[in-house]
Amino acid sequence: MDSFPAERSAIVTGAGSRRGIGRAAARRLAADGWSLGLLDVDGSAVHELAEELRDELGVRAVGMGVDVSDSAAVSAAVDEIENAGLPPVVALANVAGVSSPTAYEDLDDAEWERVLRVNLFGVHYVTRRVARSMVANGGGRIVSLSSVSAQRGGGTYSKTPYSVSKAGVIGLTRALARELGPRGITVNAIAPGPIDTDIMGGALTDERKAQLAEDLLVDRVGTVDDIAAAISFLVSADAGYITGQTLNVDGGLYMH
């Protein structure tokens, strides 16, 4: 799919956090002219965001509260978004995720499963349901957030289960790109480096930002808008020849 219908929708998961990548991505896509289906475990936050986007940018937007680790709930939420009268779903941004700073020797089964279920299973559940609609609509774009932590084996705020889950996203992305490509769907991942969001354990101090920037080839920590811009490009009609890739938006932290 190298051209899109004039009226089209994107679904963004994890759009509830006020300082998060999902909310920044939703705002960027709304500014690009997309109608939006917004998913987050905090239903009130995405209902509020949908209203803001309708009022400020004049786009159609629907917010739904859902835990992406619940397969049945995901399917029901996407059904409701599509039944709300939005244009065909052409793009999906899988942003929802959780951090996990627990040291490996202290890691219990519940924490391991929590992180994997949200960060990997959740991407699968949402993607599977939305891909079915994209196939029916003639194609689309799927972008999922991985992390430089997956490529470097950690070294960030979050530790092993987070790195494993984000590595799984890269594997899922490549497999889906191969399988869904003939159906007109591109599938890519983004691997952010240090980004100033609350998933890093709360707002970063200026001192912590300076420490993180020492490992980068640019002189600053990334912002949510840096990632939103990458999502905007990868779900655009212009990105039709890019699939199965992991785009590092990390200030040069990891080069491969």
Automatic annotation (TrEMBL):
Pfam families xrefs: adh_short_C2
Family: Belongs to the short-chain dehydrogenases/reductases (SDR) family.
Organism: Georgenia halophila
Name of the protein: SDR family oxidoreductase
Keywords: Oxidoreductase
The keyword Oxidoreductase is annotated on this UniProt entry: yes
InterPro entries: NAD(P)-bd_dom_sf (IPR036291), Sc_DH/Rdtase_CS (IPR020904), SDR_fam (IPR002347)
